Amino acid sequence: MSSIDLRIANLLAKQHLSIATAESCTGGLIAHLITNIAGSSEYFMGSVVAYSYQAKADLLDVSWDTLNTKGAVSKETVIEMAIGVRKKLKTDIAVSVSGVAGPGGGTDEKPVGTTWIGLSTKDGEWARHFVWDGDREGNKKFSAEAALQFVLDYLEGKLI
Question: Domains (ranges, CATH) in the chain?
Answer without folding.
Answer: 3-155 (3.90.950.20)
